[in-house]
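U., I forgot to send this yesterday:
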Amino acid sequence: MKLISETEQLIIRQLTLDDAEFIIQLLNEEAFIRYIADKNVRTHADAVNYLTNGPLASYRDYGFGLNLVLLKETATPIGICGLLKREELDYPDLGYAFLTEFCKKGYATEAASSVLNVGMKAHSLNTVLAVTLLDNEGSNRLLQKIGFELKGTMALYGSQNNLYEYTSDK
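Result:
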């Protein structure tokens, strides 16, 4: 497993197949299904398939992807955060999701800021995008807080989303 970054409170590392049980838990949270999508990951085999064809394939193909976020003090997994490359977008985008019990504590902001800074440097990126549903107030606030600029809206996966952009010349 590859360490991506360490912050004051968090360890951020690449996901492995050993993280399957946590992925089942996270992807079935009400907020994940509402604001991201129902990925239909219900079993260990589903989670292994999701990891293999999602984050692990992204590491192989692009050198980056979603990472596991753990509390440094206890090594408790609390969410995922990383850069993604979607065919629908011209640049990589920042993605994240956290267990509800760990939301509104600053962890997502800390993880997103670290992943963004480390990822842009490591992969020589000048621009990173982010998309979030119009009514996802927490994500919209977080993106603006860490320096993303709202560029407009776009349809993605059947829903209207806010499109944000972060450029390294800020």
